[in-house]
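INTERNAL AUDIT FORM
Audit reference: QA-55
Scope: verify that the stored structure record matches its stored sequence.
Auditor: D.O.
Record contents follow.
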Amino acid sequence: MQNLLPVLLTLIAGLCVAVQTPSNAMLARSTGSLWLAASASFLGGTALVLAIWAVVDRTPLVTIRQAPPWAWIGGFYGAFFVAAVAFSAPRLGLALTLTLTIAAQLTAAVVFDHFGVLGLDKTVVTLPRILGVAFILAGVLLVRR
C-alpha cells in the first residue's frame, strides 16, 4: 500500500508527458520556433516548481551546494527532451515518438541500474529485465507499422 502513491504519481507523470508533447508541438508550430516553444514550456514549469518550493518546501538554498557537479545538468536533458519530442511528434506521430522515448529510457535504465551509474543502487541485469526491454523494443516496431 505504501507504494501506491509513487505508482500513482508515476502514472500521472506519464499522462503528463503524453499531453505535454503535443502541447509543445502545437506551441512550436504556432510560433514557428521550436526553441521559443521549449523556452515557454520551461518558464512555465520553472514558475510552478519555484512557487511550490516557496510555499510547501522551503529547503534553504544553501543546501544545493551539497549536490555533485553532474547533478546540476539535469535540466539540460529535460530541455533536450522537450525540444526533441516537440519536433518529432508532428513528424512521427505521438505514439511512435513516445514509444521510442520509452524504449530508450528503459534500455538506458537497465544499463544504468546494472552498473550503478550516477549514484544509483546496482541492480543486476536479469533475463526478465532483458525480455521486458525486448518486448518494449518489439512494441516500437508494432507501433511503427
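Auditor finding: record pair retrieved intact. Helices lie at 4-31, 34-57, 74-92, 94-115, 127-144.
Action required: none
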